[in-house]
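During the reporting period the student researcher (J.K.) took over the structure-prediction task from the postdoctoral fellow and processed the backlog of single-chain submissions. One of the processed entries is reproduced below for the supervisory committee.
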Amino acid sequence: MAIEVKVPMLPESITDATVSTWHKKAGDRVARDENIVDLETDKVMLEVPSPTDGIIKEIIKPSGSTVQAQEVIAVIDAVSADQKAPAAKVEAAPAKTEKAAPAMGPAVRRVVAENDIDVSQVTGTGKGGRITKENAMAAMGGNAAVATALPQGSRPEKRVPMTRIRARIAERLLEVTQGTAMLTTFNEINMAPVMELRNRYREKFEKKYKVRLGFMSFFVRACVEALKRSPVVNSSIDGNDIVYHGYYDVGVAVSTDRGLVVPVLRDADQMSMAEIEAKIAEAAEKARTGKLTMEEMQGGTFTITNGGVFGSLMATPIINAPQCAILGMHKIQERPVVENGQIVIRPMMYVALSYDHRLIDGKESVTFLVTIKELLEDPARLLLEI
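J.K. obtained the following C-alpha cells:
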C-alpha cells in the first residue's frame, strides 16, 4: 500500500520550508519514525519521520525544493508484518551486514551533504560517537588529494546558496540597523569576586545539581535585577506606544553552524542559578542539533550575547528586535587597574549595552550597566537582592 509522506504543520508565521537533505533515496528501506529528510525554515530545522515501515517508492520534492505544510514530498510502499518475515530470514543468513550510519544532527548532515563527505571514514567524537561539525570540517580539511590537484596559481571559488536561516538573520539585522536609533555604551567589570565564588563552590554545586556552574547564570541574575530597577530597558515600542513588560524573559544567544539563535529563559526572575544553568545547557544542545522549536525562541524581553567565548575583547552587539536593548559579554583578560591608588592586576571584562535611543536615554543605559557592574563585583548582593 502506498503511503504519502507530507510536510508537517509548520510553526506559526512560517508559510513554507526548503527541502534541505534527503537521508534516503528511492528504493531504500525505512523504518517507522526514522528521520528521512530535513526541512529548513527561516528559523528552525525540522525532521520528517517516516510514517510507516516500508520502501521509498518515489521522492517527489528533491533537495532545494520549496514546500508548504501538508504538501506531499515522497511516497512509501508500506511493508506488512507478513512481508517483513521473509526478509528477517534472509538477514539472519551469514551475509555481510551493512554498517549503521553514524549519528549526527541536521546541521552536520547538511555540511556532509554539501561537501560530499564520506561519513564512513569519519570518527565521531561527540556523545555516543556522534559526528560533530568539527569532525566534518576536519574531514574536509584532510582531503589532500583535492588540494594538490588544483593547478598552480589557481584561485578557486565556491558558490553556495545562502541558507534560509542565514538569509533571515541578514534581513532582521538590516531591519534593526535601519529601523532603530541604536547606540552602545561600555563599561568594565572586575570578575575576580565572581570567579572566586565560582571556584569555591563549583564542585559542590555541580555535585548537587548535576549541571556546570558557568558565568552566564550570574549575568542573567544581575540583568534581571538591573531590569527591575530600569523598567524601560525591559520594554519595547509598538507603534506610538511603549510596552512595559511585567515579566523577565531573557534570551541567551547561542552560536550554531547555521547562524545565531536565541532561546529564551521564561520568567528568569523566578529561576534559581541551577535552573538557569540547566536550561541554558539544554537550549544550547537543542540549538546545535537543530531541535529548537519556534516557541522556545519567541517572546524575549531582553537578550544577552557572549562573544567572549570566541575571544572577542570588545564589540557592539545588535539589538534583537522588537526588544530595545541587548547586553554583550566579552573575554575575561587580566589587565592593570588602579585600586586605592595602587596598580594591580585584575581579571577584567568589557561589557556593552546596545539600546534603542528612541526609547532609552543615555543616563538610563549607563545606570543599567553600572548596576550590573556593582552586582557582579559584589555578588553577595545578588543573593540578598540589594
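The committee noted the following: The CA atoms of residues 186 and 352 lie 5 Å apart.
J.K. will present the remaining backlog at the next meeting.
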